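Consider the following input, taken from an annotated entry for M48 family metalloprotease (Leptobacterium flavescens).
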Amino acid sequence: MRRGNLKIRLLIGLAIIAFAFVRKCSNKQENPYTGRVQNIDITSDQEIAIGLQSAPQMAAQHGGLHPDDRLQAIVDAVGNKLVQNSIARETPYRYDFHLLADDRTINAFALPGGQIFITMALYSKLENESQLAGVLGHEIGHVIGRHSAERIAETNFWKTVSMGASVGADAGGLVNGIGQNTLLKNGRGDELESDELGVLFMLKAGYNPEELIGVMKILKAAAGPNRVPEFKSTHPDPENRIQKIREAIIKYRGR
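Applying the prediction step yields:
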């Protein structure tokens, strides 16, 4: 009887895993704004809802919003200029730009659906408006590239696979750990795609895309000599990003 139960559990587990792979294949769709085929299992409306729900918590983790309305107005103006002069205006996303009070963490990030953040620590390092446009254009690229939605779909896939492995054998924890640990941040490909989109958005809005190279130099200097080697990091090395940015400038300039 125990052998029969084990066989049933194994079959159920295999069925769950097979379902995960079938669902992943059926979720393949072409991004209408980038042309890239992606695994996505949520709608744009769901992306927007996730971003709006998560935004207050993300802001709180960085000391809340910066109190200077004048600086916030500058961020809004540059962000909205990028949106209105690019393909971003044709997307269903709701773009909101937030200057965070955090004056220690040099960072900018985007939530799914259009919620975009830049810390005061990074803002204060920027030398001109074009560099700000480079940062915000890169983050808009993450939204249009649907990078968070891809990570959500991959996480859901690994959760289902883990469930099947747990039913069929005592291996679910390992599979789940692999899935979670590899999907917490944007990958190198996501960063490079967003850099290229950022260059395009800057050009469309009349900003100097060369200043995005300046942003990379700021990030490199902030990381210091002990920065994590590229092969150990989810982000490309700043020098490699600079080279790709130069290639994108050549590609899009004059179009």
